[in-house]
Specification:
Blueprint (H helix, E strand, L loop, with lengths): L25 H15 L20 H9 L3 H6 L2 H16 L4 H13 L11 H13 L4 E2 L12 E4 L18 E7 L3 E2 L15 E7 H5 L8 E7 L3 E3 L3
Antiparallel strand pairs: 1-4, 2-3, 2-7, 3-5, 5-6
Length: 240
């Protein structure tokens, strides 16, 4: 299990940052904008087929998180939030062949010498319109597959302990813990791509309630419960 998936409840970590600003540095806004544009132009969206863009890849929140969570844990905790975004996006463009390492190094050197150097400007109203439309409509993971839930409200379940992968939607501190199904959400939900630990195909999602003492012992307040939304693939019957 990778450390960055498992920090909930760990003792002796350094104090958390309580920074409330969404963007601390101006460049962070640009990284956020690049990511949003990539999602809006992802090739899995039907609306993109008529948009004149050279970007022809599948890109979602899941891909961004996969890049960050796949980092070496020491690097993961060393870099700031948007620095991890920058690394994930840059790595994707290199691996996908949109830019070479030499081109990236050259542009990086240019802006390190002069942070006020002008940025490339490309005017494309069709791309702008698609990005705005994506921000309005989003990309829902809900699907219309007829999938019957395996569990019902009140069932006692155990959280599985799947193998560690680059990207995981299961909080590490819940592994092997027992909980109770509090709510079965209507419908089925897929994940953007198979992660290798059980999710990807359409499946139910449950709101599961846990006794905090079962997870962290006496480190928590008495009679404290936590609620976590969990994909069905991460749950099993208590007797299994």
């Amino acid at each position: 299990m990778k450390l960055q998936h498992y920090i909930g409840g760990l003792e002796n970590l350094e104090p958390s940052s309580f920074e409330k600003r969404v963007f601390v540095q101006p460049w962070e806004k640009r990284i956020f904008g690049i990511h949003v544009a990539m999602m809006a132009l992802s090739n899995h969206l039907d609306a993109v087929k008529s948009v004149p863009t050279q970007f022809d890849s599948f890109w979602t929140w899941g891909h961004l998180r996969k890049g960050a969570e796949g980092m070496n844990p020491f690097d993961y905790f060393k870099y700031r939030y948007y620095e991890k975004w920058l690394g994930g996006i840059s790595g994707f463009y290199l691996e996908s062949g949109y830019i070479s390492a030499g081109e990236l190094n050259s542009r990086t050197g240019l802006y390190l010498k002069d942070i006020n150097a002008s940025l490339p400007e490309v005017q494309n109203s069709a791309i702008d319109a698609q990005v705005v439309e994506y921000l309005r409509t989003g990309d829902s993971p809900a699907c219309h597959a007829a999938v019957q839930p395996k569990f019902k409200a009140g069932d006692v379940v155990t959280v599985r302990n799947p193998p560690p992968v680059e990207h995981c939607k299961l909080p590490g501190y819940l592994r092997t813990k027992k909980g109770i199904i509090d709510e079965v959400y209507e419908g089925a939900y897929n994940y953007y791509f198979p992660t290798g630990d059980g999710i990807g195909d359409p499946m139910p999602i449950y709101n599961v309630v846990f006794n905090s003492h079962d997870i962290w012992g006496n480190l928590t307040e008495p009679n404290t419960k936590i609620y976590v939304q969990v994909f069905e693939a991460y749950l099993e019957d208590r007797d299994q």
